[in-house]
Each structure stands twice: as structure tokens, then as C-alpha cells.
Specification:
The protein is an alpha/beta fold. The protein folds into 2 domains: 119 residues, 3-Layer(aba) Sandwich (Rossmann fold), CATH 3.40.50.720; 180 residues, NAD(P)-binding Rossmann-like Domain (Rossmann fold), CATH 3.40.50. Helices cover 33% and strands 16% of the residues. α1 runs parallel beside α11 and α5 packs across α7. The chain is elongated. The relative contact order is 0.14. The model has no long low-confidence stretch (mean pLDDT 96).
């Protein structure tokens, strides 16, 4: 009997990568893209599914309780905030992600935003477009060797940011991550408490997951602890930054500039207090993107499903039981 995998939603041009992985395995795709908009839709299409692949549709406790045959749920992402993992674990449904598919892309994007802020590219472009050929509005610009890069979180992406930042010439790099006990001192990176990283950072780059503990981790208090005139970059999740607090800090000069690839409410970007500020760079949650990253993500997601159904053990299984 074939295995059924429901793909609830995606925004990729084809499912060719998934079909290649599933070829000859007896795993058949039910393409729910455009048809899975509510919990009822997911249940209707997935009640008899052996596996679910999802991107943005939340997989809630209510849905999980109606899945009669599901053995594994895999998300097209690193983050798993759309899946009720405790509920899945109670029902002994494996949950997996792809934690290593866009490390190069996100670290490159973070460095691009950092460099744009430090070199004041947006400010200078605006001046030139207005007809002013002078660098006065950029003053001061400091050498990278004089700057400390502070990292919030020190997982795969942050480590790659640190490696590339060291190659670019940053003078000092410090990181806060309560789940990391030691780092490679050969890279010149030091671990510090959150307050220590905030106090040292000339540039703060955020690379932590979205959890209840990290919501608004960067708030009024955290921003006051930064050096006056520091820069803030977020390529992780919008919920980590209190945008109203950041807007206040940008307007009063406590933060000299910010660059964000993620917002608190990406479905309602008009509501963000950061839009329209001269010292803010915004990109549309695309740090992860390259054509190669998409292909890698789709392939690895399909491999998790295949290994879960045929071997019983996906390599990126997060809720082991």
C-alpha cells in the first residue's frame, strides 16, 4: 500500500525535487497548495496521510488529534514555530525541519546588511539621488577593525557570520547563547552574558529562534544597554525585536541604524513603525533565498519524509521519543 504525504502549502515553482526523492519508494504526493487554508482543509486532505509537509499553515493540536495515520511532519524551514510540537510528541508523531539549508545565504545577507549600515550606504545613496555629492551626512564612519560585532544566538548561521566577519576584519566578536558552552577561540570569538554582549556591541546581529523566552528580547531595556550609536540587524524572526522600542531608539539616536529582513507582522507591514525611517533598511524576509537554497530545502524535506516512513528515523528529528 503506498504512503500518502500531504504537502499543505509552498511557494516553489514545482515539486520536482520531492518527486525525485520519492521516485520508486511508494510515497505519493497529495498537493494541497491552495486548498489548505483552514484547519478543516488540512484535516479533510490529511486525515489519512502518513506524512505532512508544511510551510506556513499552522499544524495545531486540533489538527493533530484528527490525523489517524500520520507518522511525521516536516516543515519547509529551520523554524518550527508553526507546529505544536508537544501535541505531536504526545501522539508520537515525529517532527523534523531542515536546520542547515540556507546557512550561506542568511550569513551573506546579514553581512550585506551589516556592511550597508556601517558604510552608511542607504544614507549616501539618498543624498546622491537628491543631488548632493558629499559625504558629510555619513560622518562618522569607523573602520571595521575598531568595531565589536555582538551576536545574539550562536548556532550554524551565527557561526558562519562570525567566520565571515572575522575575514572582513572586525576587531572583536562576542556572542550570547545560553545553550552553547564553548566556542572556537581560534576565531577570536568570546562568549558573554546578554548584558555583556549588548554593552560591547557596535553592531548587534540577531540569530536566535522565535520562542516564548525570546519574544521581544530586544526591547527598550536591551536597547538602552547598547552603546549609543550602535547598529542593529535582525535576520532571524521578527518577534525577537520590539519594533516600537527600536523605532524610539532610532529616532533619539541611541541606535544609529537598523536593518531587518523580518518583521513582527509580515502580513501587515504598513503597521510597522520602522517603515519610512531614513536610518532603517528593510528586506522582505528573503535572507534565506537563492535558487540553490530552494532546491536543497525541497530535497532535504523530502528526504526527511522518506527516511521517517521507510527507516523510522529522519536525520533532523527534533522531538525524539
Amino acid at each position: 500500500m503506498p504512503h500518502k504525504v500531504l504537502i499543505t502549502d509552498y511557494y516553489y515553482p514545482t515539486l520536482d525535487e520531492e518527486r525525485r526523492v520519492f521516485a520508486g519508494t511508494g510515497i505519493e504526493i497529495c498537493d494541497g497548495n491552495g486548498r489548505c487554508k483552514t484547519p478543516e482543509d488540512v484535516i479533510a486532505l490529511g486525515e489519512d496521510a502518513d506524512a505532512i509537509i508544511t510551510q506556513f499553515v499552522p499544524i495545531t493540536r486540533g489538527i493533530l488529534e484528527r490525523l489517524r495515520r500520520c507518522k511525521v511532519i516536516v516543515r519547509y524551514a529551520i523554524g518550527l514555530d508553526t507546529i505544536d510540537i508537544p501535541a505531536a510528541t504526545e501522539r508520537r508523531i515525529m517532527v523534523a525541519n531542515v536546520p542547515d539549508y540556507c546557512i550561506a545565504e542568511v550569513s551573506d545577507h546579514a553581512l550585506a546588511l551589516i556592511m550597508a549600515l556601517v558604510r552608511k550606504v542607504k544614507v549616501m545613496d539618498t543624498e546622491v539621488q537628491r543631488g548632493t555629492w558629499a559625504y558629510r551626512r555619513a560622518v562618522p564612519v569607523r573602520r571595521l577593525g575598531e568595531l565589536t560585532l555582538g551576536l545574539i544566538g550562536f548556532g550554524h548561521i551565527a557561526r558562519e557570520v562570525a567566520r565571515k566577519a572575522r575575514a572582513l576584519g572586525f576587531g572583536r566578536i562576542s556572542a550570547f547563547d545560553p545553550y552553547v558552552a564553548e566556542v572556537d577561540t581560534a576565531l577570536g570569538i568570546s562568549l558573554a552574558p546578554l548584558d555583556g554582549v549588548l554593552a560591547q556591541a557596535d553592531v548587534l546581529s540577531i540569530h536566535a529562534p522565535a520562542t516564548q523566552e525570546t519574544r521581544h528580547l530586544i526591547d527598550d531595556d536591551a536597547l538602552r544597554r547598547l552603546k549609543r550609536g550602535a547598529f542593529v540587524v535582525n535576520t532571524s524572526r521578527g518577534s525577537l525585536v520590539d519594533e516600537s522600542a527600536l523605532a524610539r531608539a532610532l529616532k533619539d539616536g541611541q541606535v544609529a541604524g537598523a536593518a531587518l529582513d523580518v518583521l513582527e507582522d509580515e502580513a501587515n507591514i504598513e503597521a510597522s513603525p520602522l517603515r519610512g525611517l531614513d536610518n532603517v533598511i528593510l528586506t522582505p524576509h528573503m535572507a534565506w533565498y537563492s535558487t540553490g537554497a530552494i532546491q536543497e530545502l525541497q530535497r532535504k524535506v523530502a528526504e526527511q519524509v522518506r527516511d521517517a516512513l521507510l527507516v523510522g528515523r529522519p536525520s533532523y528529528w527534533v522531538n525524539r521519543f
